[in-house]
């Protein structure tokens, strides 16, 4: 059975970002704990961007962190701009993979709940592997844990995340001109 490993990271992936490193380290630990060899898994990197995509940045960070995996195990999705669109654009890539698969997702506990709902919408069941969550400030901790992620979870239940994605993309397009 082939495993598809998907690290979900926020916004801009940078090597100095503690949360990005924690999620990738969790993925490395999972690979080691399950004695996976490159024939056993694929790594699906997702996220768009203007100059350099989030997916390409993640690939570079994995290599810098010591992930000496062959290039042919990496799959890239570079059109998305948020969690909902990441999964929307990943779904066709996952469906192309032959044989029985297991999808393993690495993110923080709050985000994993919403990711699970969205994957289920596309007909996929995931294995959740939580990683630590880090906050730069008390304000961000309060905003993320009490306001943002709970509201996005509710929006996802009622399929409003598609509407939010649409308006987010329009705003991003307007600012990038």
Task: Describe the protein.
Helix content is 50%, strand content 16%. It has 177 residues and is α/β, with parallel strands linked by helices. It has a single domain, classed as 3-Layer(aba) Sandwich (Rossmann fold). It has a five-stranded parallel beta sheet with strand order 3-2-1-4-5, with helices on both faces. Helix 1 links the parallel strand 1 (2-7) and strand 2. Residues 171-177 have low confidence and may be disordered.
CATH fold topology: Rossmann fold
Q: What are the segments in which pLDDT stays under 50 over at least 5 consecutive residues?
A: 171-177
User: What do the pLDDT scores average to?
Assistant: 88
Q: Sketch the major β-sheet.
A: 5 strands, parallel
Q: Say how many strands there are.
A: 5
CATH superfamily: HUPs
Class, according to the CATH hierarchy? Alpha Beta
CATH architecture: 3-Layer(aba) Sandwich
Count of domains: 1
Order of helices and strands: EHEHEHEHEHH
The secondary-structure class comes to alpha/beta
The global form is: globular
Q: How many separate helices? A: 6
Largest beta sheet: what is the strand line-up? 3-2-1-4-5
Distance between the termini: 45 Å
- Helix proportion range: 40-55%
Concise summary:
Helices cover 50% and strands 16% of the residues. The protein contains six helices and five strands; from the N terminus they run E-H-E-H-E-H-E-H-E-H-H.
């Amino acid at each position: 059975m082939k495993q598809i490993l998907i690290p979900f990271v926020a916004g801009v992936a940078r090597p100095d970002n503690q949360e990005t490193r924690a999620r990738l380290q969790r993925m490395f630990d999972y690979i080691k704990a399950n004695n996976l060899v490159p024939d056993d898994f694929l790594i699906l990197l997702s996220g768009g961007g203007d100059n350099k995509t989030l997916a390409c940045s993640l690939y570079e960070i994995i290599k810098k962190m010591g992930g000496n995996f062959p290039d042919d195990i990496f799959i890239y999705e570079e059109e998305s701009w948020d969690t909902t669109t990441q999964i929307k654009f990943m779904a066709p890539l996952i469906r192309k993979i032959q044989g029985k698969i297991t999808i393993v997702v690495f993110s923080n506990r709050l985000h994993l709940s919403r990711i699970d709902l969205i994957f289920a919408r596309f007909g996929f069941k995931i294995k959740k592997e939580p990683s630590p969550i880090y906050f730069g400030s008390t304000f961000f901790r309060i905003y993320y844990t009490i306001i943002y992620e709970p509201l996005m979870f509710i929006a996802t239940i009622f399929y409003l995340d598609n509407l939010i994605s649409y308006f987010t993309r329009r705003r991003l397009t307007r600012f990038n001109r």
